[in-house]
Amino acid sequence: MKQNEGHTIQNMPIGLRPKSVKELANRYMSGEESRILYGDFLDAFYAMSYQEKARSLAEEPIGLLEYDQIFAVTLAATVEELAESCEVNVPSWVTADKYYLSSDEAMFGVIPASEIDEDSRQWFKKQSPKSFTKRNIFVSSNALARA
């Protein structure tokens, strides 16, 4: 479960964006805000060379699944989607059964399945990239886009 509830967002200099999913996870589990780290990682990832991209996705974020299952599964889906989009090998850790939610645990954006109306549910299902959908995480089609 989350251990950082109540923590404030730490201000980090621009040059300190997470350069790997492992670093992103470690910093999140140390109390930094997941959404900021996630966006900062995407910004850093898109600026990396091919080799850097492959390295940034390779290591499994140990401990994240126990800390925040939804974020860990979302991160696994993100890694798979990024790897496929830039044609690097999908790391084997993302395909482990533990990185999939049951339909009872499904998430639509940040909303649990039990709290979303049917029209919104269908919209997310149509939009969501395959790597997210197969894990019962439903996001907009531009979830990995950056400005």
Distance between the termini: 32 Å
Structural class from helices and strands?
A: mainly alpha
The main sheet comes to: 3 strands, mixed
Strand order of the largest sheet: 2-1-3
Estimated share of beta-strand residues: under 5%
- Helices and strands, in order, run as HHHHHEEHHE
Overall, the morphology is: globular
How many separate domains? 1
List the helices and strands and how they pair.
Elements: H1 21-29, H2 34-46, H3 50-58, H4 64-67, H5 69-85, E1 107-108, E2 111-112, H6 118-127, H7 130-133, E3 137-138
Parallel strand pairs: 1-3
Antiparallel strand pairs: 1-2
Describe the structure.
With 147 residues, the chain is mainly α. It has one domain. 45% of the residues lie in helices and 4% in strands. It has seven helices and three strands. It has a three-stranded mixed β-sheet with strand order 2-1-3. A hairpin with a 2-residue loop joins strand 1 and strand 2. The longest helix is centred in the middle third of the chain and has 17 residues. It is globular and about 40 Å long. The protein starts with 20 loop residues before the first helix and ends in a 9-residue tail after the last strand. 33% of the residues are buried. The N terminus is likely disordered.
What's the short story on this structure?
With 147 residues, the chain is mainly alpha-helical. The chain is built from seven helices and three strands.
